[in-house]
Amino acid sequence: MKQISAHISKNHSKKNQFKPSPLMVAVLLSLGVAVSACQDPNAGVQSAAKTTETEKSVEVAVVDQAQLAQEISKKYIITDGHIDVPYRLEELFENVAEHTEHGDFDFPRAVAGGLDAPFMSIYIPASLEKTGGSKALADKLITMVEDIVKEAPDKFSLAYSTAEIEKNFAKGIISLPMGMENGSPIEGDLANLKHFYDRGIRYITLTHSKANHISDSSYDEARPAGGLTDFGKTLVAEMNNVGVMVDVSHISDDAFNDVMAVSKTPVIASHSSARHFTPGFERNMSDDMIKTLAKNGGVIQINFGSSFITQKAIEYGKVRKEAIKVFTEVNKLDKESAEITAFKDEYKIKNPYPYASLNDVIDHFDHVVKLVGIDYVGIGSDYDGVGDSLPSNLKDVASYPNLIEGLLKRGYSEQDIAKILSGNVMRVWKAVEVYAAQH
Q1: Rounded CA gap, 129 and 187, in Å?
Q2: Residue 179 three-state SS
């Protein structure tokens, strides 16, 4: 009996030498391989060997996805609908043709990320609508972009059309198309629209953080026009005729509806995300708006800023803002004082910012695709425009391969990813070019 018991015990021990990990179990089950103990005394060893091979296959698949992501980033044009380089350099100039200490964009990082056509945002602060100087600043920032190209013609080129984007891509040169963030520089004169078209502006975000002479803003409680102004409606129609894309990011919901009623061409949301994940945040687009945008043939370009991606980041911002307000009032301090700066720094240390993840960002792409299809979503990172709020693994323009790899893991095909990277936006831009040529 002792010998029999010992034999049974020995076999039992041998079977338990193999303890599959949860990953192994999932993979084996998906392959139809039993994970339970087998009658065969050698089964444990055989299963372990098979599992090791399977684990290696999984590891190779992961590596292959990362490699494929890199290849895709070089194979297809990558456009980004909104990068705030010009205004960043207006505040602190750096040579973006070389590696820069600050910011989210420079040439080496753009090359690493496979970025080919970042729209340079000609951002105009909302305050200039009242004080004046919008047009002058816009012209100054456009000249800055032109100078970047002049100083490094082997690295950058201006691009006024989709054909030039494709031509530059073939040459291995990064295109710098331009979009104007805030239509304030139009200054109520349609002649200025033609002026800025001639200078290279290919989309206009109708307003920014405050209502202007064109449109109400999603950020502004005051809604004097109840949507677009009369001039705004005229401007949208003329943008169609001239060949400037209409950008509905930043505008109010009512203004969006007005744009949809007026525009004869597809429009873009150059840097907005899905309101589904941030209820009540009008700056993002509701499901109904995304459906209307898709029906129009337009594209929503997902903003990477954490506060555009998760409700948690929005709530953090509200609480932090209130804490700063209370500290300022209690201590009767000036908003620009050193004490306020120190308080803000200390607050971040004690209350770390809840950065969104790469997966959180991809959730927005998924949501749009499930809602309206693959043809109506693109990239509008808002690099250099959202400060220190960028998600993990998407911190600068070197990060597009991370996004691509994430999309591959979600099951997106190479063809689908190519549409997200540039195909959808290029389709809209070409449609705008064709309409303008006919009118």
Answers
A1: 8
A2: strand
